[in-house]
Structure formats: structure tokens, C-alpha cells
Write a structure and sequence with these properties.
The complex is a heterodimer of chains A (about 350) and B (about 325).
Chain A (H helix, E strand, L loop, with lengths): L1 E5 L5 H25 L4 H9 L6 H26 L7 H18 L8 H27 L3 H21 L34 H18 L1 H11 L1 H6 L4 H28 L10 H11 L4 H25 L5 H16 L1 H4 E5 L5
Antiparallel strand pairs in A: 1-2
Helix pairs in contact in A: 1-2, 1-13, 2-12, 3-7, 3-10, 3-11, 3-12, 4-5, 4-6, 4-10, 4-11, 5-6, 5-10, 7-8, 11-12, 11-13, 12-13
Chain B lengths: L2 E2 L2 E2 H6 L2 H31 L7 H19 L2 H25 L4 H20 L24 H5 L4 H19 L1 H11 L1 H6 L4 H27 L11 H11 L4 H24 L5 H20 L2 H7 L13
Helix pairs in contact in B: 2-7, 2-10, 2-11, 2-12, 3-4, 3-5, 3-10, 3-11, 4-5, 4-10, 7-8, 11-12, 11-13, 12-13
The chains are: A mainly alpha (about 350), B mainly alpha (about 325).
Chain lengths: ~350, ~325
């Protein structure tokens, strides 16, 4: 009989091997799914793993989608490492977008380029505010942060809906539920012409370095993680769990809000009911697949971005529903969690009764 | 025809105020039933120490499974069975992972929810335009003819009464039978249950499958009875509200039922207020169930000692038999 046997210590090799094995399993399941649907699996895999890489333009698009995932996941990595379960990044993203959009709408023909900074800061503040509600309710009332942050996603969608169907609706927009298009001056600067890659990518990479330094080279980063790994040890050492809670939620909320700002003032350019994109949820998977490590998250964000682009291509070229992306994302996280068992346990054949 | 909780809006608008209250009560019971079935399933999970954050995903997959089954067979019963089957299957996958592979319950449940959202949308795409055969209007003979009271209480789907019977049976099972005692002991102290020779993991696994089946039944009820159609993401957070309900109810079956009706009422209130012409943005009214969940959750959790006394002691903790 196949038995799980606890390893004397966690396997370093499997810690990094497990995401790769999980990806292999996901690809295998994906091939099975394509065959089941009567589609050519080779062509299917091409959409996901070759098309997004094959030209400079495609690579740019890959980065456009990887950037928001990367930024949100970095915040979530800090959060999850502190054992704070913020799963409402999607809501913080939406409120960040709303706040940024509100500032962008103030701009007119005479406004200077400085408005971009205000737009970005408003996004960060919006996301922080939304996450702070969860932090406050957890801190003051011990309300479960998983449920509160998730409920707030729905509320955030309603706030956005209220604004774009109501007071912020473009009067000249033929009654479509959307704001007027933002002035060009609010546009997040792009890195080069011919590609939609913006300074968001630079901010994301700075974020990678900052989170790495914070987590592994500062005392407060250490304190933050001790609370997550061993709450009683943290208490004994006199580390404040309240401070860790607030820091975790404000960081991840701010990151999600920043992303909201980069998206609305970047590729989207106005507020519409379709701002909620699922990035906030996908970033949870990105954070996990990247081992909650800033460098790992870079790779997983790119991978997840390939899933998004592959899904869109599979829709337009193979007639498959775009939601295939969500299926693969879910499968990847499932496989990863299962493969992670191999970090702490090894498989053993055992004959007879145990 | 547009429906709120199975009741045509046009009908609600045509009747007078008293009649509309009767319809509000009927709709509340209907909406509460959706939440109660799922929350009672999650209760069984949590009684044995397992938190399944995948409720939303299981309900979505069951909603499309149930809807598809009714489209193909024309039988509601087949729809409910398909939903329960889908829920039990996903519950089993979740169970293997958290119970036998020892994966983190929160992360695995979350994975199940994310997967369920994507998978149901993927499978459901070809059912978006499909219609179900005409829905039956159920009535209890004679009682349904009583003015107002009949409309409020006696024109419901059989499952609305079924869930009440189930709660009574569950209370008897959990607190009056030996098996119920074993079940609870697995959640309170898996080590003791193990020492007494009970297979903690097998009991947990069975409970997780039953919980999944109930979440599945709730999902199928949504797409077959409550709003008889398929729309992407149509469960709309009800799985998460059901999860919150187990905490509100401090893990007591009867309180879950009452809590579910309360939340069903909040959900229906928005349509009622709109019908009365109250001048509040519709988005605010739609946000009410979620806001109410947050507020009640905060109020209930205010006293951590109270939660700790009532919560199954091993909730969320994996159990690995060491012998």
C-alpha cells in the first residue's frame, strides 16, 4: 500500500520542485481536456505556451497582464506570510481604481502631468482604506478576515456600479454606464512606443526588490513572519500581532489599490462596470505558486499572464470559452497544494498491515 | 418572466400591500432555504473539524450540473441528484487533499472556490440560453387556500419544508445518538476519538462528502427552483454567506435555520423596498446582504471566548494518526 511518511525535515528540493510538478500535472490535465473537447491538444498548448512568447509585441502584452498580477501578489505574499488571510484583494483593487478614477476625472485641459502622481497615490490610498475596514473589524471585533474581506469585494462592486450608473456617468455617453474617458494627461506613462507596457512594470520590479529586502533583510520583516509561523513565539518575544495585522492588510491593500490605479489610468482609461477583472483572485494563486517569495512570484505572474493570453487566444482561434483560463488557474493551485505534500512527506510502498 | 425567488415580479406588483407582505414572507423562506441547506452541509464539515472555504465553488458547479441535468432529462429530481453528486464529488476531492494529504484547509478550499468559478463558467457557456420546462407551482391542498397565510407559508417548494424536517432530524442525530456523539468528538478531540478506536480520517471524509452533497443540493436548488436559469457566477456569494452563518449560529443547527431566514429576509427586503418605491440607490440595496453579513459577523465575534467555547475545538487543524 502507498503510504505517506513524514520526512525528518522539509525537503528543499521539493519546495522548488513542487510548483514545476504542479505545472506539469496542469498541462497534462489540460491536454486531456482538449482531447475530451475534440480539439487539437498541440494547438491548444501553442496558444498558452508559445503564442504569448513569439514576438516582441506578444512579450509586451505578456508584461501588461503580468504587471498587475505581480504587484497584487507581492502584497499578498507579505500578508499570507504574516498568516493574515486577505482574500479580498479584488475589492481593494476596485476601490483603488475608483479612487484613482475620481482623481483622474478632476483633470481638465490645463492640468499638468503631476496629476499622474496624484492618480496613483489616490489608488494606493483607496486600496488601503478598503483593506483597513477588514483590519479594523479584525482588530476591534475579531471578525474573520477571510469572510469580511471577501464580502467587501461584493460591496466594492456595488460602489463602482453606483458611481458609473449614477453620479459619475458620462452625460454625453449615450446613457452607457461609464464615466467620460480620462484626459490624456492622466495616462500612466508608457515605457516605449508601440507597446502598452507602462511604468507600472518598473514599479512592480522595484516592489520585488523592496519586498525581498523587507522580508529577508529587515527586523520588522522578520517580526512580521514570526507572527505568521509561530504566533506563540511571537507573543513570547513581545511582538505585536495587532501591528502585524495592520501592516499586512495595509501593504496588500495598498498594492491592490495601486494596481487598480495603473489599470484604469492605463489600458482602460475610464471607469466602467467591467473594471473588476479577477486579478485580485488570480493573484492569490500567483502568490502561492511563487512560494510567497518575491522572485518566485515574478515567474508565477508571467505564467499566469500566459494563462490569460492563452485563454483569450483559445477563444478567438479555437472557439473555446475564455473561462478555460479560470479552469487552468484553479487546477494549477489544486495540483500545487497536492504536490506540496511531498515537501513534508515522502511516498513509501509498504507491504502488509501498517 | 422576471422572478424574485421564484415569485413573478408582475404578481408582486399587482397585489395589495398585505398580499405583498405575504409574498415577502414566502420569498424569505425560499431564499433562506438556499442558505440553510448549504450552511447545514458546512455545519457537518465543521462539526468534525473541517472548514471548507470551497462552498461557493461547489455550489456553482452543482448549479450548472443540476441545471444541465434538468435540461436533458426534464426531471427536477435528476437535477437535484446531479447537483448533490457534483457537490459530493468536489467534496471528496477536497477531503482527500485536506484529510489524507494534509494540505492547508483554507488554501485548498480557496482553490476549490476559484476552480469552481472557472469550471462552472466553462461548462455552462453552452447552457446560457437554455430554458427549463415550465416550473410547477407547489401548494399544500386546503392550507394554501387560507387567505394571506396560504400564500406566505403553504405554496412553497417541498424542499422548503424538507429543510425544516432535516434540521429536526439533525438535532436528534447530533445530540441524541451515539453516532452523533462520535461525530462531535472527532471535531472536539480527534486524539481521544482515535484512542477509542474510531477512524478519525474516515469519519471526517464521510462528513466532508455529505457536506459537499448538501452544498450541491443548495446549488442545484438555486439554478432549478430559486432562479430557474443558468448565469455565470449566479451563486453570487451565497456560499460565503453560508460559511459565515455557521459562525453566527455558533454551530447550532436550529440557529442556522433561523439565521438563514434572517438573511433570506435581508436579501428579499431589497426587492420589497424597491417595489415600495423607496428612493435608495439599487446598488446600496443589493449590497445589503453582504453588509449585513459583515456587521453580524463583527457583533458575534466581539467576544472571542464565546466563540471559542462554541467552536469545535479542532476546527481547521489537520489530524495525522501517529501510530
Amino acid at each position: 500500500m502507498l503510504k505517506l511518511e513524514r520526512r525528518p525535515e522539509a525537503s528543499e528540493r521539493w519546495r522548488y520542485g513542487s510548483p514545476l510538478l504542479a505545472l506539469l500535472i496542469t498541462v497534462a490535465l489540460g491536454i486531456g481536456l482538449f482531447v475530451l473537447l475534440g480539439k487539437d491538444p498541440v494547438r491548444g498548448l501553442q496558444m498558452f505556451f508559445w503564442e504569448p512568447l513569439k514576438s516582441a509585441y506578444a512579450l509586451g502584452e505578456l508584461m501588461v497582464k503580468a504587471t498587475p498580477l505581480l504587484i497584487i501578489a507581492l502584497g499578498l505574499a507579505v500578508c499570507f506570510r504574516s498568516n493574515v488571510w486577505n482574500i479580498g484583494a479584488e475589492g481593494q483593487f476596485v476601490i483603488g481604481a475608483v479612487a484613482a478614477g475620481g482623481v483622474a476625472l478632476l483633470a481638465d485641459k490645463e492640468t499638468g502631468r503631476w496629476i499622474v502622481v496624484a492618480v496613483i497615490l489616490a489608488g494606493v490610498a483607496g486600496g488601503m482604506f478598503w483593506a483597513a475596514i477588514t483590519a479594523w473589524l479584525k482588530d476591534k471585533f475579531h471578525a474573520n478576515e477571510i469572510l469580511v474581506s471577501l464580502m467587501l469585494v461584493y460591496v466594492a462592486d456595488m460602489v463602482l456600479g453606483y458611481l458609473v450608473y449614477g453620479p459619475w456617468k458620462d452625460p454625453a455617453g449615450y446613457n452607457f454606464p461609464q464615466t467620460k474617458s480620462f484626459e490624456a494627461v492622466t495616462q500612466i506613462p508608457r515605457l516605449m512606443s508601440g507597446s502598452r507596457v507602462s511604468v507600472g512594470l518598473i514599479l512592480a520590479l522595484v516592489g520585488v526588490a523592496a519586498v525581498w529586502v523587507f522580508l529577508f533583510r529587515t527586523r520588522s520583516g522578520f517580526v512580521q513572519q514570526v507572527g505568521g509561523l509561530a504566533p506563540s513565539a511571537a507573543r513570547y518575544a513581545g511582538f505585536s500581532s495587532r501591528k502585524a495585522l495592520w501592516l499586512a492588510l495595509l501593504t496588500s491593500g495598498g498594492a491592490a489599490g495601486l494596481t487598480g490605479a495603473l489599470e484604469v489610468a492605463g489600458p482602460i482609461g475610464q471607469l466602467t462596470p467591467y473594471i473588476p477583472s479577477g486579478y485580485g483572485f488570480a493573484a492569490i494563486i500567483v502568490a502561492y505558486v511563487g512560494r510567497l517569495h518575491p522572485v518566485g512570484i515574478v515567474f508565477s505572474a508571467v505564467l499566469m499572464s500566459m494563462f490569460y493570453i492563452g485563454g483569450e487566444l483559445a477563444q478567438s482561434r479555437m472557439g473555446l470559452p475564455k473561462s478555460i483560463t479560470g479552469v487552468f488557474q484553479g487546477l494549477l493551485l489544486f495540483s500545487l497544494l497536492a504536490c506540496d505534500t511531498l515537501v513534508a512527506y515522502r511516498l513509501r510502498w509498504q507491504s502488509g498491515r501498517a | 418572466m422576471r422572478h424574485i425567488g421564484g415569485i413573478p415580479i408582475a404578481l408582486a406588483e399587482r397585489e395589495g400591500l398585505m398580499e405583498s407582505y405575504a409574498l415577502l414572507i414566502a420569498a424569505t423562506l425560499n431564499a433562506g432555504t438556499v442558505l440553510a441547506i448549504a450552511a447545514l452541509g458546512l455545519l457537518i464539515n465543521e462539526k468534525v473539524g473541517v472548514v471548507n472555504l470551497g462552498a461557493e465553488g461547489m455550489m456553482l458547479c452543482a448549479a450548472i450540473a443540476g441545471f444541465a441535468a434538468v435540461v436533458h432529462t426534464g426531471s427536477d429530481l435528476a437535477g437535484f441528484l446531479a447537483g448533490m453528486g457534483a457537490g459530493a464529488l468536489l467534496g471528496a476531492i477536497f477531503g482527500v487533499m485536506v484529510i489524507y494529504l494534509g494540505t492547508n484547509q483554507y488554501a485548498t478550499g480557496l482553490a476549490l472556490s476559484l476552480f469552481g468559478v472557472g469550471f462552472s463558467a466553462f461548462v455552462g457557456i453552452s447552457y446560457v440560453q437554455e430554458k427549463l420546462p415550465p416550473r410547477t407551482q407547489f401548494e399544500i391542498p386546503f392550507l394554501a387556500d387560507i387567505p394571506l397565510v396560504g400564500a406566505a407559508f403553504f405554496k412553497q417548494h417541498p424542499l422548503v419544508y424538507g429543510v425544516i424536517a432535516y434540521v429536526l432530524a439533525l438535532i436528534w442525530f447530533l445530540y441524541k445518538t451515539r453516532t452523533g456523539l462520535v461525530l462531535r468528538s472527532v471535531g472536539e478531540s480527534p486524539e481521544s476519538a482515535h484512542a477509542l478506536g474510531y477512524s478519525v480520517r474516515r469519519i471526517r471524509f464521510l462528513a466532508v462528502m455529505v457536506g459537499g452533497a448538501l452544498c450541491g443540493l443548495s446549488g442545484a436548488y438555486i439554478s432549478v427552483v430559486y432562479t430557474p436559469l443558468w448565469v455565470e457566477g449566479m451563486v453570487a456569494g451565497k456560499g460565503w454567506i453560508a460559511l459565515a452563518l455557521t459562525t453566527f449560529a455558533t454551530w447550532r443547527p436550529a440557529r442556522i435555520l433561523l439565521g438563514a431566514y434572517l438573511f433570506g429576509g435581508v436579501t428579499m427586503l431589497q426587492f420589497h423596498l424597491q417595489g415600495l418605491g423607496v428612493q435608495v440607490p439599487s446598488q446600496f440595496l443589493s449590497a445589503l446582504p453582504y453588509l449585513a453579513t459583515i456587521v453580524v459577523l463583527a457583533l458575534i465575534s466581539r467576544n472571542p471566548a464565546w466563540i471559542r467555547v462554541n467552536m469545535p475545538a479542532s476546527l481547521g487543524k489537520p489530524f495525522h494518526p501517529s501510530s
